[in-house]
Amino acid sequence: MKNPKKEIIAGIVRERKTQGITQDELARRLGTQQSNISRFESRQYNPSVDFLDRVARSLGKELHIELR
Asked: Measured between alpha carbons, how far is 62 from 45 in angstroms, rounded to an integer?
């Protein structure tokens, strides 16, 4: 069984690194602290849909959620 939370976070980390954006820069774009991004990326933080949407948009992406 897939782990959607893990897949979403891995995708965000991959996109952040592909774009050459540091955790600190991502935090600045979101108006939060770098430590919050670190906790999110290490799965120590249970993000809200709003937070995931803000992260996606700060990376120039859209968040899509679907049920199958």
From this structure: 21
Q: Domains in the chain, start-ordered, CATH in brackets?
A: 4-58 (1.10.260)
How far apart are alpha carbons 66 and 68 in whole angstroms? 7
Q: What angle do CA 46, 42, 31 make, to 5 degrees?
A: 65
Using alpha carbons, select from 43, 33, 44, 40 the residue that is nearest to residue 56: 40
Q: For residues 51 and 63, give the distance between their C-alpha atoms in angstroms, rounded to a whole number.
A: 10
pLDDT in tens, the chain (68 residues): 588 889 999 999 999 999 999 999 999 999 999 999 999 999 998 899 999 999 999 999 999 988 87
